[in-house]
Amino acid sequence: MDILQLFSAVLLGLGAVLGVVGAIGILRFPDFYTRMHAAGITDTLCTGFFIGGLMLQFGMTLATVKLLLIFMFMLFTCPTSTHALAKAARKGGLKPWSKSDTGSGAQNEGRAT
């Protein structure tokens, strides 16, 4: 195993770990907005790590250029969609969770209080 394959494996492993951490964040955070934050951040970074690792595996080929274009598309669409969903939820009346709320965020989610 040469250094390029090792670095590629590290990037792919980091992407996998970050994906699992993001999934745990989506399950554990108390309200919609913090869950969206966990999903948006880990989605973009996880994609970057995966695509970076795959680019190292493919070398300088047309597939690398395609992966780079996919990454550029994801770099713009993931944060934009997260922002649009959060803004729509706020306009829809979904208030963020606070410490003074009684019960967990899962019980209060979906209701405009």
Uncertain spans = none
Oligomer: single chain
Number of strand elements: 0
Order of helices and strands: HHHH
The end-to-end distance, rounded to whole angstroms, is 57 Å
Task: Characterise the protein shown here.
This protein has 113 residues and is an all-alpha fold. The chain has one domain (3-86). The chain is built from four helices and no strands. The chain has helices spanning 3-28, 32-58, 62-91, 105-108. Helix 1 (3-28) runs antiparallel to helix 2 and helix 2 packs antiparallel against helix 3 (62-91). It starts with a helix and ends in a 5-residue tail after the last helix.
Q: How does the SSE layout of this entry go?
A:
Blueprint: H1 3-28, H2 32-58, H3 62-91, H4 105-108
Give a short overview.
With 113 residues, the protein is an all-alpha fold.
List key phrases describing it:
0% strand; single chain; 113 residues; mainly alpha
